[in-house]
Design goal:
Number of strands: 7
Radius of gyration: 14 Å
Helix content: 25-40%
Number of domains: 1
Length: about 110
């Protein structure tokens, strides 16, 4: 799963949750936006925050809500909730769970085409 922050309409950054069926990976992808713009867009969307140029924290509940609504229309959606729980367990085991489990620490990458 990827949370993208990219330049949207009227050059304003927008947040999109994509590849929601791929729960084997999770990262934050930034397009041509500044760190400040990315942080503000994530906070405004209620999906998390940027910590620095290399990492961010995503709100697990908000991310699940945004992704799960899309997963219902994709192949493999039947076991999506179980695979989501597996993602959370992996995050806890690897120390990527923060904010008492409410957040997931993720790596920042460049967005495709950025």
């Amino acid at each position: 799963m990827i949370v993208e922050v990219v330049t949207g309409a009227d050059e304003r950054p927008e947040v999109r949750v994509v590849d929601v069926d791929d729960l084997a990976r999770l990262h934050l992808a930034l397009g041509q936006v500044t760190d400040e713009e990315a942080d503000a867009a994530l906070r405004e969307a209620g999906l998390g925050r940027l910590e620095d140029a290399d990492s961010g924290v995503l709100d697990a509940a908000a991310l699940r809500a945004a992704a799960e609504s899309q997963a219902g229309s994709q192949a493999g959606a039947g076991d999506w909730a179980q695979r989501w729980e597996g993602l959370l367990e992996t995050a806890r085991d690897r120390g990527w769970s923060v904010d008492d489990g409410a957040g997931l620490r993720v790596h920042v990458e460049g967005a495709a085409g950025a």
